[in-house]
Amino acid sequence: MKKSQQAAILTAILAAALYALNSPLSKLLLERVPPTMMAALLYLGAGIGLAAVRAVQRGLHVENREVPLSRADWPYVAGMVALDIAAPICLMVGLSRTTAANASLLNNFEIVATSVIALCLFGEAISRRLWMAIALVTLSSMILSFEDAGSLRFSVGSLFVLLACVCWGFENNCTRRISGKDPLQIVVIKGFGSGLGALAIALVLGEECPAPGAMLCALALGFVAYGLSIFFYIHAQRRLGAAKTSAYYAVSPFIGTALSLLIFREWPVLSFWVALAIMGAGAYLASTD
Known about the structure:
Helix content is 78%, strand content 2%. The protein starts with a helix and ends with a helix. With 289 residues, it is mainly alpha-helical. The protein has helices spanning 3-19, 22-29, 35-59, 74-95, 100-106, 109-122, 128-145, 156-177, 183-204, 212-248, 251-264, 270-287; strands spanning 146-148, 153-154.
């Protein structure tokens, strides 16, 4: 394996580790911040944080060798921003109605969404091994989505998390089309565009701004879990493609699940552990494809 590809894999895993902070810490902040407002602050934190990074680079006269976005890229940018408004809102609503551990593990469904969309819309190859991974992740997600297996009742919170994953699957493929362009510019546009869009929706819904302390915490979490994570994710996509990057990114839900269990001291039911084992097998097949 070439060093450049090894670096891309490590970058994808770093992006995953940073994003893993999102579910457990957002679950804590949702006690003080309404869901749609929380989604807005997370993306605004990403935009503000990386805009500050760019300002520091310019102040230090660091040469920017990245290719800026062109007019031909704007349809993908518009799709990326719109999907990034919908996805975190769905995730925050889902988090408010299910456990952080459950939501973290369900985030692996993004592998399925990203890979299938990459195949159907852009013709990216999916191997037999990755198809097996998709099947296992889908099965695990179905188990996690049942609130009551006896009555076959679905968990509303889990369904919202899965919907967020589908949105991010489309968004990952939009981002893949422009991943050769300036990552900082992309994330700043993502942050401000999606953050302001979600903020407008939050205000229309009548959600109030949180206390300054909670607001700063949400912005800081957005900078790390969304801003820096997306920045590294885009770098990884350049070498690996959308489907492969999403596969290595699969470690994120397991880190988030572990953090959630530690923070909230929840002991899940047996079906969760069965789903965890199946999800682990699927993620292993995907990441070693």
